[in-house]
């Protein structure tokens, strides 16, 4: 009984951490970057729908996570590229996310999983590249944490560090979101 109770608390805490960090990041970046704020807000809303019982069916919650991944994360990368003058990469990432969001119904469960993991890794790598070239330490940490979340989700194991794999991935995503929030702030200060 105790391991199941711990697993439920772990899941709740990881959703809460991701939701609170994402909501804080959305509110604090809303004035400077509406795109990144929207990406953070999508993550917070997806986390909230999974936390609150009765907000929707399991299928609705999974659709929210899908949208938060394929649109929300590219919105974060969009802002990093846009501020640094790489408008074509910014538009390509966001456009690709939009196409995947629309095509999601035509992909099977395995196809959506692979597409979501590809989005996570592409966003992590592109932000990491921008962060390295602009010497943005928070961006580097954010890219590393998001990349770790993407790679952890591919593991066959059900538990990582004695916690359910999904909870560890959400915690890594929350840490990455916090770092991205700080990186956006540092990047805006650098260009002002």
Automatic annotation (TrEMBL):
It comes from the Eukaryota. The keyword Transmembrane applies. Keywords: Membrane, Signal, Transmembrane, Transmembrane helix. Residues 1-32 form the signal peptide. The chain crosses the membrane at residues 35-55, 62-83, 89-107, 114-132. This is CYHR1 protein. The gene is Cyhr1.
């Amino acid at each position: 009984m105790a391991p199941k109770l711990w697993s439920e608390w772990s899941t709740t805490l990881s959703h809460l951490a991701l939701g609170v960090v994402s909501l804080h990041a959305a509110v604090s970046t809303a004035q400077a970057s509406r795109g990144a704020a929207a990406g953070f807000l999508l993550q917070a809303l997806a986390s909230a729908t999974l936390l609150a019982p009765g907000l929707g069916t399991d299928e609705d919650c999974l659709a929210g996570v899908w949208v938060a991944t394929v649109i929300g994360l590219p919105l974060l990368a969009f802002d990093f590229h846009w501020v640094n003058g790489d408008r074509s990469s910014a538009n390509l990432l966001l456009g690709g996310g939009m196409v995947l969001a629309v095509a999601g119904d035509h992909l099977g469960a395995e196809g959506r999983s692979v597409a979501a993991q590809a989005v996570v890794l592409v966003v992590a790598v592109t932000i990491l590249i921008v962060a390295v070239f602009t010497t943005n330490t928070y961006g580097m940490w954010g890219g590393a944490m998001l990349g770790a979340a993407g790679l952890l989700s591919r593991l066959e194991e059900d538990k990582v560090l004695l916690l359910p794999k999904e909870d560890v991935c959400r915690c890594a995503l929350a840490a990455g979101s916090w770092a991205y929030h700080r990186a956006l702030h540092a990047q805006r200060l650098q260009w002002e």
